[in-house]
Specification:
Blueprint lengths: L13 H10 L6 H22 L13 H4 L13 H5 L5 E2 L2 E2 L7
Antiparallel strand pairs: 1-2
Length: about 100
């Protein structure tokens, strides 16, 4: 690949796509290479924008739900109306939901 890479700007050229496709032995034509270059350039542009965001005062998260997940109390309720719930099921037999067999 050429020494002029897309690290300085947020764009990828058709030629770069074709070179990588050739190295990976992928059959990519010129029109597809143009499309890939355009889409990858958009993603790199977004990454460049995100890199500019000031995150100094933000604590890292291991899971997005740590910050905003409000959970209800885990209390058992015995007010389940089986007939009402099963009235909308596609197939029910003797109080059980019937599902299609997926393993032969």
């Amino acid at each position: 690949m050429s020494q002029q890479t897309s690290t300085n700007n947020s764009s990828v050229s058709r030629q770069e796509i074709l070179e990588v496709a050739s190295l990976a032995r992928l059959g990519v034509d010129a029109n597809t290479a143009d499309s890939y270059a355009n889409e990858i350039s958009k993603v790199l542009g977004l990454m460049h924008t995100l890199a500019g965001v000031n995150t100094d005062d933000l604590a890292p998260l291991a899971n997005i739900h740590e910050a905003c997940q409000d959970l209800r109390a885990d209390i058992a309720k015995h007010d389940i109306n089986r007939e009402r719930n099963q009235s909308v099921a596609p197939a029910v037999e003797e109080g059980l939901y019937l599902v299609p067999q997926v393993i032969e």
